[in-house]
Inverse folding.
């Protein structure tokens, strides 16, 4: 391994020297924002994406795109050409809980297979650092709130189970090959780049905030609220929304830790907001109503999911720049108003 390009200063992502990184799924939602964060501090970035869910317009200038599937050896060979990477940041995955309940074996095979192929290629090319985009779905129905890393893992969906399988595979890659990894188990990614360079554009869309915004803009049917009888203050489900730019920042901050050890972190704001609170904030920011209807609970939805990010904060100095719901909603609203057709190609982003 070549020496690490530099350590982060306390609370300062920009303290790292120039590095070189491969980002799989870098044309998707969280991946593209992480690419922006890397480029903003001067790093060289290569994106590997099959573009089935990503967008060309989400990739900033100066970033080389290799189009192809992560399981494709030739695509991996093209991606790893040109010099050794300091780390791989792996976002490419299937990620819809409901879809995984309909097609569980596809989720198991694709998510584990994709991760295994990328990790294997990284090891063979001498890159022994990897950051994986994981999920709060590992915890199923949590025993206590907020959810810390000590809680029992118990996925209740094939999606969550597939990510747990990925973590276990990385454990073996570390034991046998010395591949150090970070698994970031984040909660509800939301918002858009504050400078308007990237945003959220999925098709089909399943996330609450963009659905509420589009309902207010008249671009979609009324929003469906699933469940109004939860044991929460207003009866609707409570979730931890973390700004996508803050998620990207966390990915950069864990990189220096891989010099010494592998890590797993829960990643969220530590504050929960209900579905009704999100609707109310969209109405406040947008100045127009959010048409919505009330429906029954969805099977498998916990009443409350809120993260404890205390360990991440302590180890890296990470702290969200956009912790309040209004900032999250406002960046998402501004991007959608400026991009009424999203990126314009009508393909979903990961």
């Amino acid at each position: 391994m070549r020496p690490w390009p530099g350590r982060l200063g306390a609370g300062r992502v920009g303290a790292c020297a120039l590095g070189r990184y491969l980002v799989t799924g870098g044309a998707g939602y969280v991946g593209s924002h992480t690419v922006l964060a890397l480029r903003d501090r001067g790093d060289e970035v290569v994106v590997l994406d099959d573009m089935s869910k990503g967008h060309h317009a989400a990739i900033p200038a100066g970033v080389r795109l290799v189009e192809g599937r992560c399981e494709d050896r030739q695509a991996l060979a093209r991606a790893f050409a040109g010099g050794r990477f300091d780390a791989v940041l792996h976002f490419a995955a299937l990620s819809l809980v409901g879809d995984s309940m309909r097609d569980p074996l596809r989720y198991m095979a694709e998510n584990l297979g994709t991760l295994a192929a990328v990790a294997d290629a990284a090891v063979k090319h001498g890159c022994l650092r990897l950051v994986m985009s994981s999920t709060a779905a590992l915890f199923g129905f949590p025993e206590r709130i907020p959810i810390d890393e000590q809680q029992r893992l118990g996925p209740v969906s094939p999606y969550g189970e597939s990510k747990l399988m990925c973590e276990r595979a990385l454990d073996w890659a570390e034991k046998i090959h010395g591949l150090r990894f970070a698994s970031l188990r984040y909660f509800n990614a939301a918002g858009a780049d504050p400078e308007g360079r990237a945003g959220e554009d999925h098709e089909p869309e399943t996330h609450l905030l963009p659905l509420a915004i589009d309902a207010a803009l008249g671009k979609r049917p009324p929003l469906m609220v699933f469940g109004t009888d939860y044991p929460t203050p207003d009866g609707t489900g409570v979730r931890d929304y973390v700004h996508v730019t803050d998620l990207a920042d966390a990915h950069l901050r864990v990189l220096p830790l891989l010099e010494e050890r592998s890590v797993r972190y829960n990643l969220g704001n530590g504050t929960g907001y209900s579905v009704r609170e999100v609707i109310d904030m969209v109405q406040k920011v947008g100045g127009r109503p959010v048409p919505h209807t009330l429906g029954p609970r969805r099977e498998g939805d916990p009443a409350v999911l809120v993260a404890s990010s205390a360990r991440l904060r302590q180890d890296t100095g990470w702290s969200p720049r956009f912790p309040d719901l209004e900032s999250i909603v406002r960046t998402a609203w501004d991007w959608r108003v400026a991009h009424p057709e999203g990126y314009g190609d009508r393909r979903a982003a990961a």
